[in-house]
Amino acid sequence: MTKTNAGNFFEDFYVGQVIRHATPRTVTTGDVALYTALYGPRFAVQSSDAYARALGYPQAPVDDLLVFHIVFGKTVPDISLNAVANLGYAGGRFLAPVYPGDTLSAVSEVIGLKENSNGKTGVVYVRSTGYKDDGTEVLDYVRWVMVNKRDPGAAAPAPVVPRLPECIEADALGDAVPMLDTIHWDNDLAGSRFRFSDYVAGERIDHVDGMTVEEAEHQLATRLYQNTAKVHFNQHTEGKGRFGKRLIYGGHVISLARALSFNGLGAAFHIAGINGGRHVAPLFSGDTVFAWSEVLETAEIDGRPDVGALRLRLIATKNRPCADFPLLDADGRYENDVILDFDYWALMPR
Amino acid sequence: MTKTNAGNFFEDFYVGQVIRHATPRTVTTGDVALYTALYGPRFAVQSSDAYARALGYPQAPVDDLLVFHIVFGKTVPDISLNAVANLGYAGGRFLAPVYPGDTLSAVSEVIGLKENSNGKTGVVYVRSTGYKDDGTEVLDYVRWVMVNKRDPGAAAPAPVVPRLPECIEADALGDAVPMLDTIHWDNDLAGSRFRFSDYVAGERIDHVDGMTVEEAEHQLATRLYQNTAKVHFNQHTEGKGRFGKRLIYGGHVISLARALSFNGLGAAFHIAGINGGRHVAPLFSGDTVFAWSEVLETAEIDGRPDVGALRLRLIATKNRPCADFPLLDADGRYENDVILDFDYWALMPR
Amino acid sequence: MTKTNAGNFFEDFYVGQVIRHATPRTVTTGDVALYTALYGPRFAVQSSDAYARALGYPQAPVDDLLVFHIVFGKTVPDISLNAVANLGYAGGRFLAPVYPGDTLSAVSEVIGLKENSNGKTGVVYVRSTGYKDDGTEVLDYVRWVMVNKRDPGAAAPAPVVPRLPECIEADALGDAVPMLDTIHWDNDLAGSRFRFSDYVAGERIDHVDGMTVEEAEHQLATRLYQNTAKVHFNQHTEGKGRFGKRLIYGGHVISLARALSFNGLGAAFHIAGINGGRHVAPLFSGDTVFAWSEVLETAEIDGRPDVGALRLRLIATKNRPCADFPLLDADGRYENDVILDFDYWALMPR
Predict the structure, then answer these.
(1) Which of B17, B224, A4 is nearest to B233 (CA)?
(2) Fewer Cβ close by (within 10 Å): the C or N end of chain B?
(3) Is residue B162 within 8 Å of residue B142, measured between CB atoms?
């Protein structure tokens, strides 16, 4: 009997299965500093205790995506160690603010299974929940991954494909933000004179700047999240693999694009929900990430006179500036340089 | 109307203009740890709460240059996003100690403007001030940058060139250091048996060690400071530019040279003033930084029996050891390998 | 008289000499976050305040190897700046838990000296002790290094070779771990269902995963530890040297291998003693580290019903997976790819 974790294969999962993931993690100001060094975010609420306190937070909350990556990282050894591909996200909600000192754990429930027709792989749908040690839920989201079967001859389970929301309802947003005293929202310090009412559906924003990624950077990030997916770290093996090089964690791209989006969305201080996301193409060390956003929808939130919600489509490219908003080609396929298509709700002060 | 910050051009500035910069920043022990990892400083006062407390600080203060870089970083989106060159610094003073937990913001006043004769660029002089959220000023300094005009045809403003001090008066130094109980200064723990009275004007010190810089390192540093200058991060664009590669933030060089200077200046625990500084040549990833110092002047400070001031000229080179103190050639020009000429006041225990 | 530290040469040491090392260092959650980012450790006790508290710690202790590296780093400027080789470790014990906020200092005593027959170098044996500012000892260990003589003509001292224990006694282990309330040890959160009684002497465990090292990573780590050994940082000089490249700090390898060993030894939460260690071959940037462990011995600890001790031999390789447990060749020499042979005691819950 081996002591080593070989990860779960497709036939190890069953609908209704609940998996408590390893390694609870206390988030600290050290993690916050590293997150800043890795991506360069400039949102005032997460950067300044003083700014956050003036608005009604007890202190600066931890960046939403840092919370996401930590929760996601915990799920990897159990859910996706034998994954061929991370297919998508849906139904993500940030449910409570996270502060330095909070300890995060994660649990996943298998909510769907569908073997692929090749008999070699199957799709596993899990709802993962991150929570604090007092039980407070801070995040839940669904992701689905294509996982190898251990034994191609194993019988296929009855297919269960969960119904996933195309989009989180606006009124379900905002639980991770206390009621804000927006009279203390300072546009100069926030770095943008544009607020909720200044954005309209259909508007496109080129975030202009580009960020080149180094191997050391994405490895530091992915280890910080205690994400153990093999493809990110092992050049000896990956050098002989599909791409000949290490693959960058998809979440690294989301964080880079989000940080770039400050230039044009400086008041979009909080990611309240993740409607969907796809990693359209891989990113490698040496590539330069650019990003642009489209405002898909603007929505008021019931009971929240302080903030409004923008539904945003965040597109990231590699080695291609986004002044012309690259997305789909004439045949409706993603253009070659597009690497991320991420649909989320951001909150902005009204 | 674009939502994106295009930065200010030369004709957007006017003398007397006051700019409140974005993104207040709470400094944490996480930032301090990263600063240590990036440069390897070994000054005992900043490294040890216990050592600092024995001397009279409430806890270890944050490294002066970390404060400088954070304040500087805030000014970039408003002052130097369209800068062609960062021409110099003067009149810098550290005014109060900064501790983990303090939140820093920055404001700049335009104190001079002079269009260049080519009509395409002009020099902007700003005095930038960093302050805590209770209003305490922690740093002010002047820098001047060459900034592009948006429209070469725009009329030139009346030239205003501020008078800048060649050197901070010694008696104006030390506000960021409480009166120290130097009986608790421990030479062994400080890593140097030499104190203020052991140094004489004219003395030259080779700091011996060299430090090679990697892309990931300077990018992590510059993002940590939330400095958004494009030339540091974007290989896609810089690869086609003047140097064919990313340019390293000049402040990174200052911090590397300062950390190297511990070897020979271990008791010079505090940078009290910045008299002037020039980035003589660019630094790139893969280059190795060396440094040497000349003691320009030694000065007592009125009312301070605890500490004395050394005026130091810190020279950094790339790919050239400094045993022969490289500086100027026979024609009075900087030698090829010199990259930094930095004139500052350091405090030492007496 | 030069102000620069040239380090000690062989003839500067004498048996009984006590050296107080420079730069006390307050360990913070920032250091902990960086340690996580550098190696990706997943041991629950060090990762989670909540998990540690449930067991009886006041908060999560700092990773043992981070403590080791910080103490080790302090000794470098005095002991091994002129070292040719770091020959070995022995007799290491972790004596008290270290928490963020604790300030660490180090002192070394020279316990042995032996000039080599070539007359150019000698071996220096030191016992180094790390302690908190209240005097609590947290770690002591012996290391021996080959150090250059300043003057090959200097007379050899009388040879003194200390008797070193081959192995720490099991009953001397565990001082750095409070009595644990192991009813709260949660296998799921700890990431392993195997505990002390599940391991047997002779058992071999392949840790499977590989980790490729980048220059920026080991430089960040080694500077974080304020370790000033020249060979790790200076490509200008090392490029002309023995290997043509920078040499990675041996401790970096130990930490990588230890983090990899979580996969198979997830409950081995604490390094209680270091019996011996050798850096068999150098590691360079771009190499991929793999590891495997052999259980040498299992031992109960007198008075400790909560934890047992595993004596482990941790072998690291470069660019070679460890499924076949590489170690010695037919002639009893280390195989080419082996880089570390590390003999230590780990504690596990019973």
Answers:
(1) B224
(2) N
(3) yes
Q: What is the mean pLDDT of residues A163-189?
A: 97
Q: Which residues of A touch C (CB under 8 A)?
A: 2-5, 20-26, 28-31, 33-34, 77, 100-101, 103, 105, 133, 214-217, 219-224, 226, 228, 230, 233-237, 246
Cβ burial C286-303 (10 Å sphere, 16+ → b, else e) = ebbbbbbbbbbebbebee
Q: What percent of chain A has pLDDT over 90?
A: 96
Residue with tokens 């009412």: A197
DSSP state of B249: P
Neighbours of A189 (CB within 10 A): 20
Low pLDDT (below 50) residues in chain C: none
Structure token pair of residue A179? 């009621």
Q: What is the pLDDT of residues C284-301, one digit of tens each?
A: 999 999 999 999 999 999
- Chain A: touching chains (3 or more CB pairs < 8 Å): B, C
* B228/A40 CB distance under 8 A: yes
d(CA C189, CA A238): 30
Residue B1 pLDDT more than 70? no
Check CB contact under 8 Å for B24 and A33.
Answer: no
Tallying the residues shown for chain A, one arrives at 350
pLDDT at C1: 65
Interface pTM (ipTM) of the complex?
A: 0.97
The answer to whether residues B162 and B109 touch, using CB atoms and an 8 Å cutoff, is: no
Torsion of CA A213, A220, C315, C205, to 10 degrees: -110
For residue B282, give the DSSP letter.
-
SS (H, E, C) chain C: CCCCCCCCCHHHCCCCCEEECCCCEECCHHHHHHHHHHHCCCCHHHHCHHHHHHHCCCCCCCCHHHHHHHHHHHHHHHHCCCEEEEEEEEEEEECCCCCCCCEEEEEEEEEEEEECCCCCEEEEEEEEEEEECCCCEEEEEEEEEEEECCCCCCCCCCCECCCCCCCCCHHHCCCCCCCCCHHHCCHHHHCCCCCHHHCCCCCEEECCCCEECCHHHHHHHHHHCCCCCHHHCCHHHHCCCCCCCCCCCHHHHHHHHHHHCCCCCCCCCEEEEEEEEEECCCCCCCCEEEEEEEEEEEEEECCEEEEEEEEEEEEEEECCCCCCCCCECCCCCECCCEEEEEEEEEEEEC
Chain A nearest C-alpha distance from C40 (Å): 4
Q: Which residues of B touch A30 (CB under 8 A)?
A: 28-30, 33
What does residue A165 show for φ and ψ, rounded to 5 degrees?
-70, 140
Distances (CA, A) of C31 to A51, C37, C53, C220: 26, 10, 20, 11
Structural domains present in chain C: 10-349 (3.10.129.10)
Contact criterion met (CB < 8 Å) for A22 and C189: yes
H helix count then E strand count, chain A: 9, 12
Of A29, A214, A224, the CB nearest to C36: A224
Band of the pLDDT at B127, cuts 50, 70, 90?
very high
Q: Which two tokens stand for residue C204?
A: 């071999």
